[in-house]
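Report of the visiting student (M.T.), summer placement. My assignment was to run the structure pipeline on a short list of targets and document each run. The first record concerns GH18 domain-containing protein.
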Amino acid sequence: MVQGPGAHRQPPRHRVRGELGGRGRLLPPGSGSRLPHDPPGVSTISNNARNAQITSWSPLLGTYTPGDGTTVGTFESGRTEWFDILTNHLGLEYQGGRNGFVLFTDLRADADYLYNPQSQVFISLDTPRTVRAKAQYAAERQLGGLFIDAADADNGLLSNAAREGLGAKETDQVIDMAPYYFTGETTAP
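After the run finished, the structure tokens were exported:
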């Protein structure tokens, strides 16, 4: 847990599947795109959906059909680790996707996600930009900190973004994080 002032509680995490909804989450069928409580948390593991039909890019709306078989994933179908996302799906250095994936931003939910129009694969993820925004949200509301799921999978970019969002001051700059705080596409490619 990356801690901020008064760190004493840890927000719960939601992992639900079905429709594509706000914050890049997969929601149960028929639930719409809103959750009553969306806690600040950072995940280095994505949830993926194949046969995704995006009907609105921002706000993100759409459906997917799980079907049989497998989809992209690092160690199991449908779950991709951060290092795999950086290697195969997201090019932070040139602010875009890789291998046919496009980075999108749902401006209403302030969430990033990857989508490949050819394969119709949807990948929910946290980016340095969304992690910093979640940390700022936690700090502004004095929530005490930010939960990071599987921090050992982070190469430092997400942790740096969390620290900056919580207001930590750098002592020695090793990497300039500013180029990593970009939004993706907001309309169909």
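Residues 16 and 27 are 5 Å apart (CA to CA). Confidence is low (pLDDT under 50) at residues 1-39. I thank the supervising group for their guidance throughout the placement.
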